[in-house]
Amino acid sequence: MPSKQVELLQGTLDMLILKTLNLRPLHGLAIAQRIEQVTRGTFQVKPGSLFPALHRMEEKGWLTASWGESENNRRAKYYALTKAGRRQFETETERWKQISLAVARALESN
Amino acid sequence: MVLLARTRSLIRNLFCRRRLDRELDREVSSYVELLAEQKFEQGLGREEARRQASLELGGAAQVQEEVRRLRAGEWLRTFGQDLRFGGRILLHHPGFTAVAVLIFAIGIGANTTIFSMVNGLLLRPLPVDKPERLTYLLARHERWGNGFSYPDFEDIRNQTGDAFSEVAMAELFHMDGLTVGGKTHAMWSNYVTTNFFSMMGIRPALGSFLIPEADLAGSEPVLVLGYSFWKNQLGGDPEIVGQRASMNGKAVTIIGVAPEGYHGTFNLIDVQGYLPLSFAGTIGTTSVQTDSGLADRKNREDRARYVGLILARLKPGVTMGKAQSVLDVVASRLRTQYPDIHKSLALRPVRLGNGLTNSTGENPLPIVSALFLTLAGMVLALAATNLANLLLVRALERTREMAVRSALGAARARLLRQVVTETALLVLMGFAAGLMFGLGGSRAVSSVPLETDLPLMFAFPFDWRVFCYSLGAALMVALICGLLPAWRASGVDLNDLIGDRARGLSPRRHWVRSLLVISQVAGSLTLLIVAGLFVRSLHNVQHIDLGFDPDHVINFTMDAHHAGLDEPQGRQFYQQLLERAHSLPGVESASLSQAVALGLYNFGDEIKIPGYQEKTGEPRPYAGYNAVSPDYFKVLRIPILKGRGILESDTESAPHVAVINQSMAQRFWPGRDAVGEQFTLGQDPNHLVQVVGIVKDARMAELTGPIEPFFFMSIAQNYTPLQTLQLRSSGTLAAVSRPVLEMIRSLEPGLPVAEVQMNQVLDGPDGFLIFRLGAGLAGALGLLGLALAIVGVYGVVSYSAAQRTHEIGIRMALGAMPGQAVKTIFRQGVIIVGTGITLGVLAAVAIAKVVASFLVGVSATDPLTYAAVSLSLAAVALLASFVPAHRAAKVDPMIALRHE
To answer: What is the ipTM of this complex?
Structure first.
């Protein structure tokens, strides 16, 4: 286990999920593993937070879910971005860039 | 977009819950399977791969619950759960539930009943167009009153165009006889100017209303029927309009029916017919003078002749202040124009509101209403404190349950919500039951038997105002008594479970409950004292020395006009009636009179006494009177003290005579023998009346107050078409009643007769009724208060005794005697009850000041009532605290120590 694992900030998980699904529809496990992979293990998404987040985002209309076949022919629930989800991803990205820039500046100043 | 998605998911969550849960379950297990598959491919054994995958998931149930908690509409589901759970808890404690609901229902029921009365008497506006714009006028001569003469009405109408869009006049209602379709009905009618209905802004249910153009002298004899009279007495005949009928023997045409619900301008009387004002004297005559009324120009122009009320509708945009200033100008003009009559005239507009209560300007109803609403409010407060206490006790009992649930992870907000839901359930049930009580209560009050000929509307219907008031009262109670215990119950510190507080030993909680009991004792004492004052007052009224004997006397009132009899025919009819009545079996004595003692009509007039000069500032000599036949004093058993009574020889042609009462003799001929003296009546200055006898004072006009000067004249010398046959029976009144009615029918078949026993007259609106109602209502509220206080005191003291079982056990184990334990608990009760009683007496003194004007023969601070009520309440309350104290002391120390 990587030691530099950190707690997810509020709202970060949503953004990471949106980002992951922006490429193509994925099922829950794939989403979690993809996030872990792209953040090089910094963020480990546990099912206990993954599923509530997915369902909440689905209820908000950002995601749609449908049953499909996995790579090894198992049934799994696939999540995909909706139009609203794409818009949300864009605004989130914008916001996140601003925040990280602001925080970076704050840290760099003496 | 987002909103749409939310709504869609909300609906889905609510209605497809099962499917969603199944899908969630499948999704989570598919996650585990996929993960296991990966681990298997990485080289783990199939079993081991599954195990590790499950471990990584971290509990399927928890994950699913997490998802469920986030779903839209979740609160609705938990609310449903709370509701079901609350319902189960209440069902499992049927005793607690029943008592709580009952207490709540008593509080709400009492308030609903009282408020429905206040609503009926004060708040329901007249069913007319913009009732808030309607006013009536008061005039001040010597004091304020609402009677006006016709010329004054014309002047006011013509000079107030700036303030009023319409000014109408209405004579006070009185009884007429309407013969239609061969049947004669007694009818209480109202004589009005022709613009009366257009001023009210109502449309007829049938036909048309009086035609506004017709002037006083030339209008046709037409009649508009009251709706309920048309419906009930005439069977709602749809062909009634246009029918000819006869009113007191004179032809009239029925032209219309007033709309349903409209009952005239009085708030307690249902007027049954409306006629043009010009017929006030010609058709309806129950007044003493049998002149031609307003049809006669002389009367129409007589500025000193009282005719009726003035009603006026404010012009749009005109305020009461503006109307007042316009009236001020008119009044000052009238003062200078007619200084002899209008020396000190002032005019004042008053909002008609829900109608006139009586013929004077003053309306006692707002004060009475406020008083009873306050008393009912105190019952509500008592119920609320009782309920608060019950819930508090239960909250303490549930400390453990709450602590356990909170330890199992229930959020504080969730616990609070649970308790609030339960309280809300109780409140809802209590409110429903309270409404039923209130409905029953207002029905009971509406059906109080009224022994009167008047078409009284003593009905207090249940409308939206009553509902809102009850709802408001229920919400108040719910807020007061629901939140406090709820907060306490949910705010349990887990440590409390092991600490002292779990045993109810916290002094803070004792203090809160003691305060509750103190306020209960104080509140119920106030209620009981006020009730006691009313009951004593009723007792006094019922034991007033009337000066006559009402037992075994029965009255038959009729109006010869109703059969179309003129004066000679009427005299002959009454003569025959009296002769035949005397010869009926069972009749001891019989007499005729113009008015009934303490009855509906009272007559009086100014009198002139040669040589008598009133002192300055004193009103001119005035006396009440009645015209009677010779045996009147025998029937009522009024003793003749001096001289003689009325005799057969006092006929129409003989000199006019009067028998006066003691008060009159002392007032106008002090220190002299009044017999042989003479006086004249203001209305009949041509006949000198000679005093021929003095009778003992009797209450003829009013039940209370000093007995005023009164005299009796010979009815033969003062014929009136309205007469009452009074009989004293030697047997039962029921046996006399039928033969008399048959006898009257044989003489005049169509004549309406009102039959009332003298005792019932005394129970009527001018007699005991007001006192009886007041005492009944106050007494009922007081008893409710007492019941609530007893339940409250007993409940609190017995609970605190039970909570102290542990403490008592230790004390007794350490050698305390049972008596001492009793004393400890009992002393607590004494302090609480004593404080409550002191506060209650103080509150009662404050309220009694308002009550004072409704009490007869008892002071508002009557020490006997205060002492008796306080002592009995103290005794009851102490008994209520003694029982649990005694029980606590009988506890075996070992059991007490093991307690908990």
So the answer is: 0.85
